[in-house]
Design brief:
alpha+beta, Arc Repressor Mutant, subunit A, 5 helices, 54% helix
């Protein structure tokens, strides 16, 4: 992953509303959630507000939408989530030098 993409994803998740939306979709699993059900779960009363937040998450590659007849299903894109978490954790403590006591020198 490149730093610019990571920054955009973290910025999108930096909104409390978008973070609640994303967590609800992650929790829902691969089946995702219909927009109306997602709206109820996260407590966003205005459909236009939810649409705005979803659009930001879709643009950053964290969420997808699929139309099934008259229902719009939203899903977390798990590979993108794993890439983002991996990017943050990949170099954890890489510059730490160990003094043998378990603490950074």
């Amino acid at each position: 992953m490149n730093v610019e993409q990571v920054a955009k994803q973290l910025e999108a998740l930096g909104s409390p509303a978008r973070l609640r939306i994303y967590r609800a979709l992650v929790r829902a699993g691969h089946a995702g959630l219909p927009v109306r059900q997602l709206q109820e779960r996260v407590g966003i009363s205005a459909a236009s507000t939810l649409s705005h937040h979803l659009h930001r998450l879709i643009l950053t590659g964290l969420v997808s939408q699929e139309r099934q007849a008259t229902t719009l299903i939203c899903r977390a894109i798990y590979p993108a989530m794993n890439d983002l978490v991996g990017f943050l954790a990949d170099e954890c403590c890489a510059d730490e030098t160990c003094s043998g006591t378990g603490e950074a020198a």
